[in-house]
Amino acid sequence: MTIIKPRILLAEDDESLAYLIKDNLELFGFEVCHCENGISAFEAFENSDFDLCLFDVMMPVSDGFTLTQKIRNSNKDIPIIFLTAKGLKEDKIKGFRAGADDYMVKPFNMEELIFRIRVFLKRSGSGKQNSQADFIKLGSYIFSHQNFELTHEKATKKLTQKEANLLKLLCKHEGSMVKRETILKEVWGTDDYFAGRSMDVFISKLRKYLQYDASIEIINFHGTGFKLATKSQK
User: Domain spans of the chain?
Assistant: First the structure.
């Protein structure tokens, strides 16, 4: 599998929320660098290249407004989105004046956040990179999570969103076993008995969709998990 990932700098002091955001963005093909405050986020920004920034406003040591102003002194173009509980008009105006491009009030919808990120990457000139990041080469297949398509020279299969999410998760951990409970929680949102039976059905469907390349296999570790592997990884 070959993949190019847009890099996102996330500054968020709420550890649980940061984990949720990071996990979801990585599932959709982004690479995320998480920092717990504005100081460490600015150091990361100076020492690496990023395509977009997601900043909380209220953070210890250095807040999101200050962080944004410092970044704007050296980079006028990188998209910056605020994620904050401060939803008053005055707060939004202050955020835009500091240099933010967009403002999302907590709690926010994760799908909407991902949509906005893709729009800003396209507008900022990272659209080509973002487009490339969505295409995963898997053996003789090309998989597009965004378009829900699995393409082979012999056929193109339109996937459901759940099928696409499941395949994306397996691709993310290609060559390694992913535990059943991890798959269930990330794709189904629950790890109960009925979701487990549904997952087994979806695994069978993916095996059928990948039948044109004998080098690809979804290996079942009975009662434990699954591994997406090529012949060299078995």
Answer: 7-132, 139-233
Torsion of CA 67, 72, 77, 81, to 10 degrees: 30
Q: Which residues of 2-23 are buried (b: 16+ CB within 10 A; e: fewer)?
A: ebebbbbbbbbbbeeebeebbe
| Residue 221: strand, helix, or coil | strand
| pLDDT, tens only, 145-193 | 878 889 888 888 999 999 999 999 999 899 999 999 999 999 999 989 9
Q: pLDDT at residue 87 above 90?
A: no
185: which DSSP letter? I
Enter the tokens of residue 150: 């699995």
Is domain 139-233 classified as CATH 1.10.10.10? yes
